[in-house]
Specification:
The chain is of the alpha/beta class and about 400 residues long. It has two domains: about 260 residues, Transcription Regulator spoIIAA (2-Layer Sandwich), CATH 3.30.750; about 80 residues, Arc Repressor Mutant, subunit A (Orthogonal Bundle). Helices cover about 40% and strands about 20% of the residues. α4 links the parallel β5 and β6. It is globular and about 60 Å long. The protein binds iron/sulfur cluster. It catalyses: coproporphyrinogen III + 2 S-adenosyl-L-methionine = protoporphyrinogen IX + 2 5'-deoxyadenosine + 2 L-methionine + 2 CO2.
Length: about 400
């Protein structure tokens, strides 16, 4: 560990000009390991570690409270790991700490989201969460096919999920979101069609679709997944196409490349996707591995609890890494937001905004996209680049093409 020469004044300066703040709190604990997981987590059933972590989190909240106390919190998100690992008492205590140290008079005024693991979500916790002010509950399903569930070590029945969703709606949770994952081991088009049909029957307010990335060198739990169990590229394309086709035919609206909302949910929507929410420009992350960012800078906390604990106990922040975003990274980030949420970019407007010539700046990427343009998946005019309405499934690929400059560009 090294002392990062970054003080509270530096962080305060970086938040100058923020009119709102998204607060992300990372709770790293899980009861069981899921093999596909890429999150920073601690798998344990010993609650003592979580109690210790709560003390540290509260100290971190106090430290940052002094720095950003004048900026209104516009969104609060408990992420993980599994935030519902915590007891009702600890979640309540955490919210009270946030209320005492940040600019947040009424918890009920802002979207308050929490992620859950349906295998272990205590159904009696749900009304307590609503009472505490939570508006959004996220339930990770991934897939219902037994073969797939076994391969990812995450087993949960549609009946249990149905019961949790009904309970949440009955208790007054405004939005229930379910997560599904494409590209998992043993997934086939027919098995996935069955899963998605079952998911549609659940009538969730929102459905988020994620794409599994197999990177066992980075995420050791993925070593439990054999590469040959993964669907091939043709199957992955069919799966991605089927998601759009099935959800749109059922009446779900496309919110962004990976978020769909039930039409009935539109009036209840308290949350925006990360691509649409302007306050995500100023995000404060608390807890292990949490990311804090402003339009120009990014800080990342220590991932491991030992270093995190040591820093917090010494009365300082737990930032391990500081990173200044280059002009190129900011341009690409803005472009990705536009593509992922609007499925198009106005090249003229974008060029003026960033003082670039779009076609020249992204000549390499536009060249790479020529083949799919020829196939009619995207179209271009002098001023617009857009993903064709019937081919929205290709959007994550378009975004990834623009994501990074190649080494020779740097
Ligand atoms: S997927 Fe969720 S519940 Fe499973 S190990 Fe990862 S963080 Fe924990």
């Amino acid at each position: 560990m090294y002392p990062l020469s970054l003080g509270s004044k530096d962080i305060k300066r970086a938040f100058d000009g923020a009119s709102g703040l998204s607060l992300y709190i990372h709770i790293p604990f899980c009861r069981d390991l899921c093999y596909f997981c890429h999150s920073n987590k601690i798998v344990t059933r010993q609650y003592g570690l979580a109690s210790h972590y709560m003390e540290l989190l509260c100290k971190e909240i106090q430290w940052y409270g002094q720095i950003v106390k004048n900026i209104p919190v516009t969104k609060l998100y408990l992420t993980g790991g599994t935030p519902t690992y915590l007891t009702h008492q600890d979640i309540e205590y955490l919210l009270n700490q946030v209320k005492s140290h940040f600019y947040l008079q009424n918890i009920g005024d802002i979207p308050l989201s929490i992620e859950s693991d349906p295998r272990h979500l205590d159904e009696d916790l749900i009304p307590e969460l609503v009472q505490l002010g939570f508006t959004d509950l996220s339930i990770g399903i991934q897939d219902f096919e037994p073969n797939v569930q076994q391969a990812i070590h995450r087993t949960c029945s549609p009946e249990r999920i149905q019961m949790l969703i009904e309970r949440a709606k009955l208790c007054g949770m405004k939005t229930v979101n379910v997560d599904v994952m494409v590209g998992l081991p043993n997934q086939t088009l027919s098995s996935f069609q069955k899963t998605l049909d079952e998911i549609i029957q659940l009538n969730a307010d929102e459905i988020s679709v994620y794409h599994y990335q197999h990177e066992p060198e980075r995420f050791p739990s993925q070593k439990q997944i054999e590469r040959q169990q993964l669907p091939d590229i043709e199957t992955k394309i069919q799966l991605a196409q089927y998601v759009y086709q099935a959800l749109c035919q059922t009446g779900y609206d496309v919110l962004s490349a990976d978020h769909f909302t039930h039409p009935k949910n539109k009036k209840n929507m308290t949350n925006q996707t990360p691509y649409q929410d302007p306050t995500t420009q100023y995000q404060l992350g608390l807890g292990t591995s949490a990311t804090t960012r402003t339009p120009e800078r990014l800080w990342k906390n220590h991932e491991d609890i030992q270093h995190y604990s040591q820093n917090i106990r010494n009365g300082q922040h737990a930032i391990k890494l500081e990173y200044g975003l280059s002009e190129d990274e900011r341009i690409r980030e803005a472009l990705l937001k536009s593509i992922l949420s609007d499925f198009q970019v106005n090249k003229g407007l974008f060029s003026r905004l960033w003082n670039i010539d779009f076609d020249h700046y992204f000549a390499r990427e536009l060249n790479l996209l020529k083949a799919i343009e020829k196939d009619g998946l995207i179209s271009q005019s002098k001023d617009m680049l857009k993903v064709n309405q019937s081919e929205l499934w290709i959007t994550p690929y378009i975004a990834s093409t623009f994501e990074k400059a190649t080494e020779e560009d740097n």
